[in-house]
Design a protein that fits this description.
mainly alpha; 13 helices; globular
Length: 309
């Protein structure tokens, strides 16, 4: 990986970490499902504006339907699942389950996309989960059918994330590629189209109790335009450049930034568990991103000149 790839990975984690602050402002007032819908809606609008300002030609090379379907898998379903989980689980537990995304990516890649399953990747996932658990530790929760349903919703979301990374590579990158901005734009259109009837139906059955104030809508705009539109451009560019599994390690870096923004803007306390968790997460990122010994050995072997008879 290049230095620029590491920088974009860290920047993406910082942006998505900031989304938790904005969601805390919007979701309690508007509700989980409306917040998710407006997030993808404003994300799509924000991307349309960015594409216009950057004078990007809207040429999808026959991949528009693929990008829309990716949006359903990578945004629509996961956002909806986390909305459901938010009603059933503490936020800390949802964050812990979100960290299973790289694990899902490794397992799904091995089962369906011919990815190798190395000891380093497995060790990295385990270390990352341990680190995130320390950072997002909450009080004990009694196991019940409600908790199980919430956990399953989170796991469906992370499975979607893991699958979408490989599908992006197969449907987009390996078929001539496509501008990351167009992939992000098409995906948010797909997510918006998917969530719109669900939001509309829910609004008819149970109208929103409050439409909030200016601060709430500024938070929604921020999470939609900055944490979705701009962030997904970075994410799809990373998938194209470094692959889906390495891109998914961003989920290990999000919790430390969530803690940092909470400390800076909300006055939340930083404890020894945060430092220990951050160390485990750093170890996890190194293990998952480090090239396997087999690949290094093969590269050296390929570099050797042929021996003449």
């Amino acid at each position: 990986m290049r230095v620029a790839d590491y920088a974009r990975l860290v920047l993406l984690a910082a942006i998505w970490g900031a989304s938790f602050l904005l969601m805390r402002i919007a979701a309690p007032v508007l509700g989980a499902l409306p917040t998710a819908f407006f997030r993808v809606l404003f994300g799509a609008i924000g991307l349309a504006v960015l594409l216009a300002l950057m004078r990007t030609t809207w040429v999808f090379k026959g991949k528009f339907k693929s990008t829309m379907l990716l949006g359903v898998i990578n945004s629509g379903i996961p956002f909806l699942m986390y909305c459901l989980a938010a009603k059933l689980l503490p936020a800390g537990y949802s964050a812990i389950f979100n960290a299973t995304t790289p694990l899902m990516g490794v397992v799904i890649g091995y089962l369906f996309f011919q990815e190798t399953l190395s000891g380093k990747k497995i060790g990295g996932v385990i270390a990352g989960l341990a680190g995130v658990s320390l950072l997002t530790a909450t009080g004990p929760v009694t196991i019940s059918s409600t908790v199980v349903l919430g956990a399953l919703a989170c796991l469906v979301a992370t499975a979607c994330y893991g699958t979408a990374g490989f599908l992006t590579k197969r449907w987009i990158s390996e078929k001539g590629g496509l501008d990351a901005k167009l992939v992000a734009f098409g995906s948010q259109i797909g997510a918006t189209v998917f969530l719109a009837p669900i939001f509309g139906g829910a609004a008819l059955i149970a109208p929103m109790a409050s439409w909030g104030d200016m601060h709430v809508w500024l938070a929604v705009l921020g999470v939609g335009v900055f944490c979705t539109a701009f962030a997904y451009i970075l994410y799809f560019r990373l998938i194209a450049d470094i692959g889906p599994v390495k891109s998914l390690t961003v989920t290990f870096l999000i919790p430390p930034f969530g803690v940092l923004w909470g400390f800076l803007f909300l006055g939340e306390q930083v404890t020894l568990a945060h430092l220990e968790g951050g160390g485990l997460i750093a170890l996890a990122v190194w293990l998952v991103l480090a090239p396997s010994q087999t690949r290094v050995s093969n590269a050296k072997a390929d570099a050797k000149p042929p021996v003449s008879d």
